[in-house]
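Consider a protein example.
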Amino acid sequence: MKHGEEEKHLTTKLGGLKTMPFVISTETFEKVASFGPQANMILYLINEYHMSNAKGANVLFLWSAISNFMPILGAFLSDSFLGRFRVIALGTFVSLLGMSLLWLTAALPQATPPQCNGLVTESCASPKAAQLALLFSSFALMSVGAGGIRPCALAFGADQLYNPSNPENKRALQSFFNWYYASVGLSFMVSITVIVYIQDAAGWVIGFGVPAGLMFLSTVMFLLGSPLYIKLMPDKSLFTSFAQVMVAAWRNKHLALPPMESDPGIWYYHKGSKLIAPTQKLRFLNKACMIGNPEKDIDMDGRAINPWNLCTVKQVEELKALIKVLPIWSSGIMIAVSISQHSFQVLQARVMDRHLIPGGLKIPAGSFGVFAMITLTIWVATYDQIIVPLLSKFTKRSRGFSLKERMGIGLAISCVAMAVAAMVESKRRATAIRQGLGDEPHGMVHMSAMWLVPQYSLIGLAEGLNAIGQIEFYYSQFPKSMASIGVALFALGMAVGNLVSSLIVGTVDKLTSKGGKQSWVSNNLNMGHYDYYYWILTISSVINVFYYLICCWDFGSSDNKNKIVWDEEEGTEDELELELGDHAKGVASH
């Protein structure tokens, strides 16, 4: 944090606990509003827009991919140009506009194709280009809005409380993070249960109207608190720093690298930095911090004249740290594919007995994802307090499993989850055929939807191990100033995973339907072979586990003796980055 910004925190009457109701209520309403429509969206696309199962799933995969990618762009705009307040304000407004358009698709009869009572969507009228344009515009606007809100909300709330001179500062931040995390968890639970129930019971007009109304409240609450907020100005983004290193290395490609044991004076670093010479890995990047001509590269104060021609050793090592974790990051793409399979499971649950107990509560098909969330929440809540002390007795390590072990176990459990999904679908399909429902895709199968709970729970456990382990691993390899990059990498992995999911579904549908055959991902679940589709994911996940082991072997040890000693300052905004990085992992795992 710059000195002027710190003075602003100390002398102004802005910020503080009085802003918390606005910040937390804004985030709560936004989360319920944005995630509420997603859980049941596959049914809306199939029933109202007459899309095939495969096409509907692909649309949702692509929507999720964009939604996971946009926060990276939002973080860049916030850090480099607009600041957190403006990005969040724009995000809430754009999200409100997107949800209003989505509500219009349900409220206006002209926005969807004519109703169709056919058992298969092939016999129904296809949506017109204008109708699809309205629908996809709503998805795009919601993704852009999420890109403004999600990367900035946690840090913006922390900005309101951060005051290094206050001895109660750390406790206030911890309290805020706890309330923030609780509000996120509650929001997801309400989205998957209450909003989905409203959609099933009252229809799409009210089911989309409620989230739009909540998004309106979110926007109003955030803007009402505007006079009270601390609004920090943007600073240089890490993305800009990475770009500078690559450009400088390219521009200095003509320079000859010195011997390994060379004079540190040829390297550019700031006064007082612990990093005075670059490491020998990825040596071609070292040219970015190599002083070729002191008269042209350095000014009278010892600063680089052009940061796009000469970077510090620290900047170079930060980019190297990012590149070094990319192979392990890529191994997380396949688990993102497994996590994103909710759409097909909704279609399975729709034709199964969804009563929690015979004659009791009937769970909406789109609400079964709550079991994954419950499992993930239980794991997060019990890991540090119960599981770690038990594991430490056997592993002789204070943290139980190492971070790479946690990630690997999560990948292995995701394999089991997909195998269970394949076996359950095989049983459901066989039961449907025995009942004579082969040509009745909407016929109710005499099989409890509770059979789907184990695969949801396993996915929740796999996510709790791998996703949170991923972010902690990135954080352990990066300096505190790069804490947000770990969350950004996880979001990017989810985005790529959604794209891979779309590619797999499209490929399976195209290859298995050749020659007039029934596609494995047919609109008729009973005639298709979704169990084969899940086995493809299982085999791919198993291969990915072996790929992960190779990546871990290539990465080497994470012992302290092999770590770079970064320039870390105490009593500065690095403390806030530390807190944000630690707590963002829980939020990102959802």
Q: What stands out?
A: Confidence is low (pLDDT under 50) at residues 1-11, 570-578. Residues 342 and 369 are 7 Å apart (CA to CA). DSSP finds 20 helices and no strands in the chain.
